[in-house]
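Acetyl-CoA synthetase
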Amino acid sequence: METGVEEAKPGRPLPIARIVAPRSVAVVGASDDVGKFGGRVIHYLQKHGFPGQILPINPNRATIRGLPAFPRVSAAPIAADVAILAVPASSLEVQVADCAAAGVGACIIITGKLAEAGPEGAALQERVLTIARDAGMRLVGPNCLGIFNPVDRAMLSSSLALEEDEYAPGGIGMASQSGALMGTLLSFGRHHGARFSRCISVGNQADLGLEDFLDYLVQDDATRAVGLYIEGLRDPARFRALLRAAGKPVFIVKAGRSEAGAQAARSHTASFAGAFPAFEAICRDAGAVVLDDPQAMVLACDAAIRLAPLPAAGLGLAPIASSGGSTVTFADMLPAAGLRLATMSAATRAALGRWMPDTHIALPVDTGSFHEGTSGDGLSDCIRAFMADPDVGAVVVPMTTQPDMAGRTALFPPLGREGGKPLLYLMTAGAVGDASRAVMRAADFPFYDRMSDAIAVIRALDAAADGRARHDAPAPDRPVGCGPAPALPIGALTEGEAKRLLAAYGIPTTREVAASTADQAIEAARSIGFPVVLKGVSRVVVHKSDLGLVRLNLRDEAAVRTAFDEVMAALERAAPGAAEGCVVQEMARGEAELFLGATCDAQFGPMVLAGAGGVLVEFLQDVRTAPAPLSPHDARALIEGLRVASVLRGLRGRPAADIAAAAGVLARLSWLVADLGPRLAELDINPLILRAAGQGVIAVDARATLTEETKP
């Protein structure tokens, strides 16, 4: 289906496809002066060859840029598909009403200073929206920069990015909540030879929003990869469903990451489970890729279209060039990006051995060590060997200044296309490399100016490969022995109550006995067996260790008695009148500690978290988030993605920790929060102690908060 030719039907709002590719456009505020918004709109429509009818609207002119002008939209001879309004806010309401009366299908409102400017602007925006809805007329914006549609030569915008002479049609579709940024990205992409299909600036989203245009782009045959710049979502559930059903690569930059987290959080989960971590988690789960650089987003969209896909996530890289400095520098940047050099197969090493000494066969490859010096034949043979190597995911060529750069550059597009894996070409030499860039543009092959850009693209392609595998994975099975949840009070739970909830889902917890006197604490210690742990109990205390309410490794009765008296005194100081005694627990030991959490995000639903545990959880900030429920495989992948994972796998002679058992607990926790949904405000397990591999795990401390059960 080519959505750009969708027909409008009488009595129905104009389809988005006809808004993006209209057959007639009225420009309200049209002018001969390209220094004005309306003047630039007319100029760019003509400059880029709009094939439909252009209707300039200006009460003071008979003609504009050689076209008949009309005093108002309703005086034009036809009802335009789209009216572009670039008028002062003070006259916007009148102009929109005239468009509605004339039967215009949709208005693209460039005019700003509406809802984004305060209450008066918001009231004006609401009045304009009411006029449009009553007439069945759609709105794009206000406060937007319109639509860029190279496929249909419909450049419905005043952006100065359209000063470029030509935007050849291509496959990158974009929707952006920043019009100026979108125009900048088009110009940036054009420099790199990237080509676009349809790009929409959504502005204030008074009517049509980002989700509507995402729906359009994922169905649009001309769009092969989607880029989104998002500041906020109107319909998170629809957004998530669209990502899952996209069937094409989606790359996203989300602004406003710092909105995550409460300033005075009650728990670690409340601190870490903010808006952005949840957003990133649902995107990853749906197979979309979140980046932090809008330009990298455009390059990733382009790479997804013009480069071969990465065969699988986690594969290694093979840098090769005639400069040892460039290849080594590139290789040095990989670990910080979570990437690695490939491990060459015997066949690959043999192929390289035909061109270079055995002592120099290693990644990265400096072709200056070839027996006869760098040659096109040797370079080509090595790249073909890398393309056939099962551990090589992509080949990277960071070219520096050298003789005949353009001639050497011409080797790479054919090698990349025949190899079936991404080949990333870096021209790092500044303006002296422009001839090489021209070769790549002529070959319709991507190139990169900076190593950081190439690394960002590789990370995005790697994440996209992971997303493809995730999308094809079956739904997780419910583990045996998960639930039901016991009846527990609303509000903050004690540690014992939180552990009852965990135990109901098959999560192992420490043995413990409550004690309201020192004698009871001693008797509890005898029954459990020394050494023990003693903790103060109160529903209003969050971080017990910070207040001296946890005493570890108590080895005899005297130590228990002293600890009980001291903890009760500290508890009364911390929570006057709210003390509930103490609890005596077994002293658990292991090889490592993790933090696990669960919450129900207001926008995206049940979430689980995993991170470095113990008292350093907030200091290390090593936490990852995923939507619930999870399979044990995905739970393990989440844990393996932590920075602390290298410690869990064993470090400097220490035994590896039981990551598999920890993943099993995280999977069970994910079913707990999936079952409870909004009833579970937050839950922390900190720490979860991991014993040596094969010996299991145990939840040492836990806290949770339950809310009222929501009504349908």
